[in-house]
Amino acid sequence: MTNRKRDQRVVVLISGAGSTMRAVLAAAQDTGYGARIVGVISDRADAAGLDIARDAGIPTAVVALADFPDRHAWDVALDKSIGIFEPDLVLCAGFMKLIGAPTLDSYSGRIVNTHPALLPAYPGAHGVRDALANGAKVTGCTVMLVDNGVDTGPILAQAAVEVWDNDTEDSLHERIKVVERALVADTVGRMAREGWTIHGRRVMLGSQEGEA
Questions:
Q1: Which of 38, 37, 7 is nearest to 22 (CA)?
Q2: Which of 68, 94, 95, 158 sits 20 to 30 Å CA-CA off 103?
Q3: CATH at 36
């Protein structure tokens, strides 16, 4: 599905500290990783991750919702801002806005997001809290492609995290984040190096029979 004759161009969308983006940056130091971050876009001008990107020499942009008359105008502006970097992949790394139709249409099957639960269990904004409240003994994180739902896209990769008896929402989330960052970096690299194909709800990483 992707051209693997060159490093894949990745645009990262952030809203905060940029810890997941930092993990991808670190992984990309390996010349065989297969991907490189070419731009970082935030919906918040004060996002600390912007400084990480600038220190790494990566161009940044801010597309703040408050700067536009309505959500549709912001959706269009985000799509245009992403397009400037001509990405092969778009990575949502702690991006706290839903992706609108313009970007979904432009990068269908090429937008990656992550969630702190083993989807389809515990979707939405409180995946960690919901897992604890339901007495789950194992939860984890999911890397998936973005579609027009909330945490409903085809799953790329998952990793499990044990729930401890004394866990709080914060303690469990911190352990999930450690696993999540590594899983995102690994998955983006595999997609860049090996390509991927989508078969309905399933995503297959790696070259498929008959693929050019």
A1: 37
A2: 158
A3: 3.40.50.170
Distance CA 10, CA 89 (A): 5
- Token reading at 176: 């999930």
CA distance 24 to 109: 20
Output the pTM of the full model: 0.93
- 113 by Cβ neighbours in 10 Å (0-12 / 13-18 / 19+) ranks as buried
Do you know the residue count of the chain? 212
> What's CA 174's distance to the chain center, in Å?
17
Q: Are 88 and 3 spatial neighbours (Cβ–Cβ below 8 Å)? A: yes
Side-chain half-sphere exposure of 154, counting CA atoms within 13 A: 15
pLDDT tens track for 45-103: 999 999 999 999 999 999 999 999 999 999 999 999 999 999 999 999 999 999 999 99
Output Rg (C-alpha) for the chain, integer angstroms: 17
List, for residues 15-45, the tens digit of each pLDDT value. 999 999 999 999 999 999 999 999 999 999 9
**Residue 210 belongs to a domain:** no
Within a domain: 12: yes
Task: Give the count of beta carbons closer than 10 Å to the beta carbon of residue 198.
Answer: 15
How many domains are contained in the chain?
1
